């Protein structure tokens, strides 16, 4: 008479171990919540020295606005003290601020460009 021992059991599932089948553990997949990136508005600030034509050119060149829209933004900067040129993600906004300030300094103008989180 041959005595057979019971098949070994998987410690995780408690099921008999089959040497021909790999045990896999399935984990519940959690839904990933992706948050939209923070947005920033890029602003030009008024000063008494930068020519209006230069401000219009900057808005057209760096913010892809047509002449009429650029003129409207420039007048808002001139009359209100600041004007929104566009809304971008953090990296894009920071790049635009840097480009505008760099061009202004090269041209000898004190034009200020900043960004604010929305």
Which whole number gives the mean pLDDT?
88
The CATH fourth-level homologous superfamily of the domain at 39-117 = Ribosomal protein L7/L12, C-terminal domain/Adaptor protein ClpS
Order of strands across the main sheet:
2-1-3
CATH topology of the domain at 39-117: Ribosomal Protein L30, Chain: A
- Main sheet specs: 3 strands, antiparallel
Which structural category do the helix and sheet elements fall into? alpha+beta
Which architecture of the domain at 39-117 would the CATH scheme give at its second level?
2-Layer Sandwich
Rg, please?
31 Å
Oligomer: single chain
Q: What is the class of the domain at 39-117 in the CATH system?
A: Alpha Beta
Number of strands: 3
Along the chain, the helix and strand elements come as EHHEHE
Percent helix: 25-40%
Strand content: 15-25%
Can you give a write-up of this model?
The protein has a 3-stranded antiparallel β-sheet. Helix 1 crosses helix 2. The protein has a domain of 79 residues: 2-Layer Sandwich (Ribosomal Protein L30, Chain: A), CATH 3.30.1390.10. The mean pLDDT is 88. The protein is of the alpha+beta class and 118 residues long.
Strand and helix layout:
Elements: E1 39-45, H1 52-63, H2 67-80, E2 82-89, H3 90-106, E3 112-117
Helix pairs in contact: 1-2
Task: Summarize this structure briefly.
GO terms for molecular function: peptidase activity. This protein has a domain at 39-117: Ribosomal protein L7/L12, C-terminal domain/Adaptor protein ClpS (Ribosomal Protein L30, Chain: A, 2-Layer Sandwich), CATH 3.30.1390.10. The protein starts with 38 loop residues before the first strand and ends with a strand.
